[in-house]
Amino acid sequence: MKKGFVFDLDGVIADTAKFHYLAWKELASSIDITLDEVFNEELKGISRMDSLEKILAFGGKDKEYSITEKECLATQKNERYVALLSNVTQQDVLPGVLSFLEQARQANIPCAIASASKNAPYILDKLRVDDYFVHIVNPDTLKKGKPDPEIFIKAAKAIQVLPCEAVGFEDAQAGVDGLKKAGFYTVGIVKNQPLVGADLLVRQLDEINFSKLIN
Ligand code: BG6
Ligand code: MG
């Protein structure tokens, strides 16, 4: 019997992953690096600064910027990302998510968010789904990001369930790897990207038989 749910945010609750990609693509282009969707898969689930480091290495420019300049680039990307989020409303919650969260509420199954995004509280508020989550792991408290299992173990603790009693939902390979290492039953949300190692793959949450999943 599963007793708790842990969700990634970007690409699982809402399609904000496309805004991250757009903001990074523009930032990279401003420093003459061309990003594509294949490389973008490697950025999913990874923190803002780690994403920037990967992009600079991808463009062969990892030695060209000081820490202060890198912080400035990361801030520029975030400002663009937050601007792209300005029109986000509950309409942007991915299909099947609201009814799934409602079923969890009816079944008294606590839900937590395990996202690398520092913007998670702001986005959940804009989506009007924050009430469904009893805990949002603060990424600033983590020693290591995904694919390390730390964020998922923290989320399980916060909702007082063991990882083996929990289900995790992820759209990124780093997230699926972290969930499996932590010992969660793992649901992968696929669009067009490859995702290896999940226990169940779905395109959207309403493909899941809720009672079968928890039993
Ligand atoms: C993750 C996204 O959820 O959050 C990454 O998959 C993103 O693409 C990371 O870089 C950090 O987000 P933010 O909002 O703190 O820059
Ligand atoms: Mg994601």
TrEMBL record:
GO terms for biological process: carbohydrate metabolic process. Gene3D superfamilies: HAD superfamily/HAD-like (3.40.50.1000), Putative phosphatase, domain 2 (1.10.150.240). It comes from the Bacteria. Signal peptide: none annotated. The record marks S115, K146 as: Important for catalytic activity and assists the phosphoryl transfer reaction to Asp8 by balancing charge and orienting the reacting groups. The keyword Magnesium applies. The keyword Secreted does not apply. One of its GO terms (molecular function) is magnesium ion binding. Binds 2 magnesium ions per subunit. Substrate binds at residues 8-10, 24, 43-48, 51, 77, 115-119, 146. Its cofactor is Mg(2+). The active site is at D8, D10. Mg(2+) binds at D8, D10, E170, D171. Keywords: Magnesium, Metal-binding. CDD domains: HAD_BPGM. Belongs to the HAD-like hydrolase superfamily. CbbY/CbbZ/Gph/YieH family. This is Beta-phosphoglucomutase. The lineage of its organism: Bacteria, Bacillati, Bacillota, Bacilli, Lactobacillales. The gene is pgmB.
